[in-house]
């Protein structure tokens, strides 16, 4: 189940969120050093990482699942965020060059449908980057951060899921070796812990990150489909308050 968008925003405004943002962004930039002239879609809560490519990529869009809610983004310009059903993305086939998934795959109840949609909207030579909590890491064991919610993965589990979804894993990296504590000592020593962990203790990282390429010529698996609902983007006007997550109040 998705966390509310306000909880995610507040986490990234805090000390641990700033730490996670800094360490994960560094790895994202290593994998994708230049997206000039390309289109980038973020699915989940990706805005802390999409900002890397504002002004570089040709187009950047943040798609936030309905159960999570949506925030206007970026704060300083025209809205580039939209509320979506992750199983029915409001985009044409092969319309984006890169897709970044953060706080998405581990939380969705429509995993297969979401991956099918990612495959559909990704261009033939496109790349997908998935960031998920590491099952063996400390961050997945504490629920005071978003990485402690949902289903964590090992490298082999995530690789298998990607292959089953018609993607070929190309590169794997890890991030978040510092423990998820707000201690000043931990925060200050995080860069050193990141270097040591990246060299010697990758299996205990907080997150697993796998880049994958779309299998253009893979045989299409048959699955039941219903008539798709009309896809329509939200109005781009800036809301005065965040749109809350769409939750079942009777549950």
What is this structure, in a nutshell?
This protein has 251 residues and is α/β, with parallel strands linked by helices. The chain has helices spanning 5-13, 15-31, 47-50, 111-121, 155-164, 184-200; strands at 39-44, 59-65, 81-84, 96-102, 122-133, 167-175, 207-214.
Keywords:
about 250 residues; alpha/beta; 7-stranded mixed beta sheet; 7 strands; globular
Question: How would you describe this structure to a colleague?
Answer:
- The longest helix has 17 residues.
- This protein has six helices and seven strands.
- With 251 residues, the chain is α/β, with parallel strands linked by helices.
- A seven-stranded mixed sheet has the order 3-2-1-4-5-7-6, sandwiched between helices.
- The protein starts with a helix and ends in a 37-residue tail after the last strand.
Which shape, going by the Cα principal axes?
globular
Query: N-to-C terminal Cα separation, in Å?
Result: 13 Å
Task: Give the strand tally.
Answer: 7
Structural class of the secondary structure composition? alpha/beta
Low-confidence stretches: 222-230, 233-240
Helix content: 25-40%
Lateral strand order in the biggest sheet: 3-2-1-4-5-7-6
Strand content: 15-25%
Q: From the alpha-carbon coordinates, what is the Rg to the nearest angstrom?
A: 18 Å
Report the biggest beta sheet as strand number plus sense, adding barrel if it closes. Answer: 7 strands, mixed
H/E order of the elements? HHEHEEEHEHEHE
Total number of helices: 6
Residue-averaged pLDDT, rounded? 88
């Amino acid at each position: 189940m998705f966390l509310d968008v306000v909880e995610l925003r507040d986490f990234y405004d805090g000390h641990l969120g700033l730490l996670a943002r800094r360490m994960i962004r560094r790895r994202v930039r290593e994998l994708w050093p230049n997206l000039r002239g390309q289109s980038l879609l973020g699915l989940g809560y990706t805005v802390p990482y999409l900002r890397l490519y504002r002004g570089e990529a040709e187009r950047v869009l943040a798609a936030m699942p309905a159960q999570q809610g949506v925030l206007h983004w970026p704060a300083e310009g025209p809205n580039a965020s939209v509320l979506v059903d992750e199983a029915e993305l409001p985009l044409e086939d092969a319309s984006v060059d890169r897709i970044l998934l953060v706080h998405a795959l581990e939380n969705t109840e429509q995993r297969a449908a979401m991956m099918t949609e990612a495959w559909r909207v990704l261009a033939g030579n496109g790349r997908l980057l998935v960031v998920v909590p590491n099952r063996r890491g400390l961050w997945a064991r504490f629920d005071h951060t978003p990485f402690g919610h949902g289903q964590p993965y090992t490298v082999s589990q995530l690789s298998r899921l990607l292959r089953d979804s018609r993607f070929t894993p190309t590169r794997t990296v890890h991030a978040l070796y510092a423990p998820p504590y707000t201690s000043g000592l931990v925060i200050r020593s995080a860069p050193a812990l990141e270097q040591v962990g990246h060299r010697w203790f990758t299996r205990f990282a907080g997150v697993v990150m796998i880049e994958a390429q779309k299998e253009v010529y893979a045989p299409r698996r048959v699955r039941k489909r219903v008539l798709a609902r009309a896809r329509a983007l939200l109005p781009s006007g800036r809301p005065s308050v965040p749109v809350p997550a769409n939750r079942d109040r009777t549950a």
